[in-house]
Each structure stands twice: as structure tokens, then as C-alpha cells.
Amino acid sequence: MIVFITGATSGIGKQTAIEFAKHGYNLVITGRRKERLIELKKDIETKYKVDVLDLCFDITNQKEVEYAVLSLSDKFQHIDILINNAGLAAGMAPIQDGNLSHWEAMINTNIKGLLYVTKCISTKMIEQKKGHIINVGSIAGKEVYANGNVYCATKHAVDALNKGMRIDLLPHGIKVSAINPGMVETEFSIVRFDGDEDRAKKVYENIVPLKPEDIAETIYWMATRPAHVNINDLIIMPTIQANATTVLR
Ligand code: NDP
Ligand code: 8X3
Asked: Using a 6 Å cutoff on CB, does residue 118 contact ligand 1?
């Protein structure tokens, strides 16, 4: 079995790669940071004795995505599971103060990048007449919070795309699922606040957030339900977080 994971250089994607490797799956790990991919490949192959292909590309670049998928060697051609995980929040500001490059980055990555990868890989899955696509959405795709405007919009788009893919790929025997987490401590907030680690730390101060392991284990569970069962949509929150804005600190 082969799992193709976008955004495996950090956080949820990296931990999901490790989780599937623990269970003997071979992996295609992707992201822009080549050194991290090489290191993860080495670690996983040594510890879990599975085959790992590292593909370094930027999902916002449609040609790079297409080339990466076309370049898959025979051994990694047959993708059983695609995990659409790569994504980011950039900035947090009222709409009138929004930074255009932050907006472009979120729209290009969370929506367009996910679409480019899905188009290439769903085509392969249709030929195989089987496959499973798992989209990493967010609680921000279910609710909107102050200053989250564009990030929330991109994750609402992921929610809609998840539903659309489920319908379109149904006749082809391809499962489609979404996982929508609340707060998970990863590099997410460091990226959101342009590298400001102190500000990022404050997000998780005095709370117990989800760990990437919690999401990875749940994704693995979703991927391993019996053939007649599909998890369409799942929301997972830390116990201290009731919804996007209600957090017990
Ligand atoms: P991290 O910042 O730790 O990881 C993000 C991953 O996305 C990295 O591997 C990064 O790789 C990859 N990525 C970002 N942009 C691109 C790009 N243009 N091309 C290729 N890869 C890219 O954050 P998380 O693990 O938290 O985030 C993973 C997903 O989970 C995201 O979709 C996020 O929206 C979602 N999420 C996160 C939550 C949280 O609280 N942390 C909650 C709900 C959802 P690289 O930089 O090497 O390219
Ligand atoms: C990340 C979770 O609440 O910061 O998607 O939007 S949140």
C-alpha cells in the first residue's frame, strides 16, 4: 500500500507519515524543504523498513505538481491513499488591513494547490478503480472567527471541495474523507505569525492542545475502516476547546 502525503516536512503531515510507516505502508512524502524530506526518509526507512520516496515541490506551482506526479517511478505509481495536508494560515487581521501576499499564499496553497494535487492523483485512482483521498480541513472550515477571514474562507472551500469530490468520485469507487481539527501544536502558528515564535507560543499557553500524533492516529483510523465504510467528515478538538472561539484557559 502506498500513501502520498502533502506537507510531510512538519507537524501533522510528518507525524502521519510516521504513523502509516509504523503500520508497514510505503510512502511518498512531499514538501518544499528538501533537507527535511531527506532526513525523514532516512529515519523512517531505518526505523520501519518501508520504502519512502521524497518529492520536493511547491504545491502552488501547477507544473511542478504535474511533473512530480508524472515522475513517480513504477514502484510508487499506484497511490492507494492521498492525504491532502499541506496548508497554512498567514497573518490574522481584519479584512480592511489584510496583507495581499498573505491572502495569495493561503488561497494558492490551501485551495489551488490542493486542487492541482487532487486532479493529478484522482485521475490515477480512477484508472485503478480504487483509492482514498483524505482532506485536512479545519474547524476554520466550519466556523468563522474574528480576523480569520481569508484562512476561514480557504478552509470552507476545502469543506466544499471534500463534499464535491465525494460526489464526483463515488462512481469510481474512490473514498473521500475530511478531518477538521481544532488547535494542534505544530509549526502552524509560527508560520501564521511570520516566524514570531513568542507570539506563536502564546496560542498554546496554559492549555493542552491536540498533538500531531492525535491527528495522525485518527487519519490512520479513517483510512483503515472496512471497505463498505467511509468517514465523510470528522471534527476533532482538544478537550479544552468547544468550538473555534471557546477555549478554557
Ligand atoms: P505545519 O506548518 O507544521 O506544516 C505545514 C506543512 O505544509 C509543511 O510540511 C509545509 O511544508 C507544507 N506546505 C505549506 N505550503 C506548502 C507549499 N506551497 N507547497 C508544499 N508544501 C507546503 O502546520 P500543520 O501541520 O499544523 O498543518 C497541516 C495542515 O493542517 C494545514 O492544512 C493546516 O491548515 C491544517 N490544520 C492545522 C491546525 C493546527 O492547529 N495546527 C488545525 C486545523 C487544521 P514546506 O514548508 O516544507 O513546504
Ligand atoms: C487551524 C485552527 O482555529 O487556528 O486551522 O483556525 S484555527
From this structure: no
Model pTM score: 0.99
For domain 2-236, is the CATH number 3.10.20.340? no
* Ligand in nearest proximity to the CA of 210: 1
The catalytic residues are 151
Please identify, by atom number, the ligand 1 atom nearest to the C-alpha of residue 190: 2
Q: pLDDT tens digits for 179-209? A: 999 999 999 999 999 999 999 999 999 999 9
Q: How far apart are the CA of 125 and the centre of ligand 1, in A? A: 24
Per-residue pLDDT tens digits for 100-112:
999 999 999 999 9
Q: How confident is the model at residue 37 (pLDDT cuts 50, 70, 90)?
A: very high
Model pLDDT, residue 13: 99
Regarding the beta carbon of 244 and ligand 2, being less than 6 Å apart is answered yes
Average pLDDT over every residue of 122-137: 98
Return the domain boundaries, the chain. 2-236
Q: Please tell me the residue having the least CA distance from ligand 2 atom 4.
A: 183
Q: What is the 3-state secondary structure (H, E, C) of the chain?
A: CEEEECCCCCHHHHHHHHHHHHCCCEEEEEECCHHHHHHHHHHHHHHHCCCEEEEECCCCCHHHHHHHHHCCCHHHCCCCEEEECCCCCCCCCCHHHCCHHHHHHHHHHHHHHHHHHHHHHHHHHHHHCCEEEEEECCHHHCCCCCCCHHHHHHHHHHHHHHHHHHHHHHHHCEEEEEEEECCECCCHHHHHCCCCHHHHHHHCCCCCCECHHHHHHHHHHHHCCCCCCCCCEEEECCCCECCCCCECC
Residue 209, ligand 1, Cβ within 6 A: no
